[in-house]
Amino acid sequence: MPTLDDILEHIGEFDRFQKQTFFVLCLLSAAFTPVYVGVVFFGFTPEHRCFSPGVAELSQRCGWSLAEQLKHTVPEWGSHGAAFGSRCSRYEVDWNATGVSCSDPLDSLVGNRSSVPLGPCQDGWVYDYPGTSIVTEFNLVCEDSWKLDLFQSSVNAGFFIGSVNIGYIADRFGRKFCLITTILANVVCGILLVFVPSYLWIVIFRFLQGLVSKGCWTAGYILVTEVVGPQYRRTVGILYQAAFSVGLLVFDAVAYAVPHWRWLQLTVTLPCFFLLLYYWCLPESPRWLISQGKTDKAKRIVSDIAKKNRKKLPSHLEDLKFEDDDTERQSPSLTDLVRTPQMRKNTFILMYNWFTSSILYQGLIMHMGLMGGNIYLDFLYSALVEFPAAFIIIVTIDRVGRRYPWAAANLVAGAACLATALIPEDLHWLKLITACLGRMGITISFEMVCFVNTELYPTYIRNLGVMVCSALCDIGGIVVPFIVYRLVEIWHELPLIVFTVLGLIAGGLVLLLPETKGKVLPETVEDVENLHRQSVPKDKKIYHHVQTSEVVRD
């Protein structure tokens, strides 16, 4: 009997219908950007200092510039030196007192600057920023700065919990149903975020966004790879992720035009209502329908594909079957992931690389927002390097293989983080270049681990293996805000040193994995154990195959 892939060879593997589906789903991929990296703009922490009553009036009376006002009225920031004013303490003096000198106000008030008592920012803060963020609105600085970490960790916690549940919904009720329901939930949560008055509710709705949004993005990824032929799946998957990079550019431009976080949240959420039109313009996955025994519906969709592609439907369509219908089923188990030496090694290395990729990718974006340059230009430059990253993957993956480009990408990311940490602050342009190289390296690594993960597990456990290993990505996302925002208080470049160690170790571990270039997907655990020795004719190529039938059932 012919399979769906056999029929796609006749009616078009990537023709008009597939291109239309690919384009509309790329809009979904781009729309995921504000949820994943929105903390850069929503949680932007500008330069700030304590508000001291009377300082503004004194500055106006004395005719001080801002620099002079800071010099006279803001204490030094610990060991940072006189060039840096304290963000969390102020002089405990009465600036409204009579007889205050304009040339040396502290000396006229207390006589000795070193003996001036310091106190906390009891009257709030002054922010050097024309817009607003959740940091400026809720004063998430100093003692409450950890709340910004929690803001970003909450969405990654949602990713972690939701990826399993949404994956089950997609396998149980279909890709299209999953897409529509998660898009609707994401839009509702995004709109509510605009109007909630308290920090607690912001964290709650941010968590709920994470709960549905990553599963929504993944369902789109699966659907777009299931409607194209085998030789296009890997390229389409990479370009679907590249659409996320386009979303970064759009998000950066919108954030520049709308510097107030609530209006920005509303601006990036409202267009997502149009994604609900997927109900009318997207098909259900024919592969999923066949796997559920709904062959009549699958035939109708295949007929529509042939009609839109202006191809003739094969006469043997009635014999359409799912690829694995005639094979004996094996029940997937978590213990299978670590039962044999090669499986165990693959699992632990993949887990670590998912964890590291998430920490470095998100961490570099967060740290970039703290570098002190123009946040919009820095974000733009670092986003642009993701496009050559996708090009490098497409060019090298079948010519060089998976292992060496993947290992090199991790090593480049780690080395670039070290170089960025060691470059002096006054060479901001050079720090930005090395940071962008690190971003390109970790982008390559992130995209590599996505599809190599599927190539290192046998068919019956492939979905479970990807689900378990990629869960470490979300755990990395939970801890990375604490790594970045806490360690910068000790030393601004300390997070980059941590990223260096993680990246270099990841690059070394990748070299321990077997090369999968030119090898067929493993069907059994024994195939995996022999993968590093397996020899396959050159005409058998390995493709990124999205399995839709392996569902973990209770």
Automatic annotation (TrEMBL):
Sorted alphabetically, the Gene Ontology cellular component annotations on this record are: basolateral plasma membrane
Query: Which keywords, in A-to-Z order, does the entry hold?
Result: Cell membrane, Glycoprotein, Ion transport, Membrane, Transmembrane, Transmembrane helix, Transport
The superkingdom listed in its UniProt entry is Eukaryota
> Which Gene Ontology BP terms does the record give?
monoatomic ion transport
- Give the organism's phylogenetic lineage: Eukaryota, Metazoa, Chordata, Craniata, Vertebrata
UniProt name for this protein: Major facilitator superfamily (MFS) profile domain-containing protein
Keyword Aminoacyl-tRNA synthetase in the entry? The reply is no
Q: Where are the bilayer-spanning segments?
A: 21-44, 150-170, 177-196, 202-224, 236-257, 263-282, 349-369, 375-397, 404-423, 429-452, 464-488, 494-513
